Amino acid sequence: MPRTLLGVAGFPVAHSRSPAMHNAALAELGLDWLYVALPLAPERFVEAVRAFPASGFKGLNVTVPHKEAAHALARTRSPGATAIGAANTLTFGPEGEIEAENTDAGGLLDALGEPMAGLSALVLGAGGAARAAVWALIEAGAAEVSVFNRTPERAAQVASDLGARHAIRPGGADVLVNCTSVGLGGSMDAGQARVALGLDGIDPPAIVVDLVYGTEPTPVVAWARSGGSRVVEGLEVLVRQGARSLELWTGLTAPVETMRRAAAAPPDHGRAAGA
Ligand code: ATR
Question: Which of 29, 59, 233, 272 is the most exposed place for a label (fewest CB within 10 A)?
Fold first, then answer.
């Protein structure tokens, strides 16, 4: 019997921690399945994904630049994927039906690990990662969710699509979630990153999440620690979105600690909403 396959489709995808993380989890669960990296050029994405179910694939993670295309080609979509307009997880049914989910949203809340009800939140960025974070925080009952972005028109669009507030400049909040790529790959020091994100002169809030991971600590994490914030690192969000995807495909409880260890193994740079 050939092995059941899973994978992460992206372009590029070679840097992804997902194969190591998921293969460790599959082994721990006693499943003889294999999770592979699938570099897929954008113009090949739709036809390739439609062919995967007949080739032994049970599901896919989808990362940059395919999340909107994954959402569009699915036959059914979860409420979160529908509202966010992007999917990071596809599950294939027995007849090749494609279901879309966005586990970036739930993964963020799992990584936060405490109730968001009644809290105010500030989301930095206006890409797909930011849309997932805004939707998740609103769903979790945050009292006010604001969106700030370098290009204000994009933040205004996200805010109006999802029912958040467009912040002209970053302000105080209980929770801050960095969904920009600022700090990725060690490209900026903490001071430059603070200026780029409009955080200069602002006290770090009680809880800070940085979807960027890899440089130790990232500029946003260093800023947060200097103010005594509780910090949620991007690698934890990566692990939690992966755990949710794995549970959808297998119906089993994901071994989160094993996934955490495997994801953290070598030094790496990435962004949690990029699988
Ligand atoms: P994704 O869909 O993965 O979230 P994206 O759409 O490329 O990715 O979003 C990247 C985010 O990082 C954007 O909000 C971007 O701001 P712009 O909309 O103004 O481009 C933000 N970003 C990237 N580099 C930045 C920088 N140097 N300073 C401030 N924001 C930056």
Answer: 29
Assigned token pair, 26:
């599959």
Q: Does ligand 1 come within 6 angstroms of the Cβ of 10?
A: no
**For 126-155, what is each residue's pLDDT tens digit?**
999 999 999 999 999 999 999 999 999 999
Which residue out of 149, 169, 181 has the highest number of ligand 1 atoms within 8 Å of its CB and is therefore the one to mutate?
181
Ligand 1 center to residue 149 CA distance, Å? 8
pLDDT at 274 (0 to 100): 74
Instruction: Please give the pLDDT value at position 268.
Output: 64
pLDDT < 70 positions in the chain = 215, 266-269
What local confidence, expressed as pLDDT, does residue 51 receive? 96
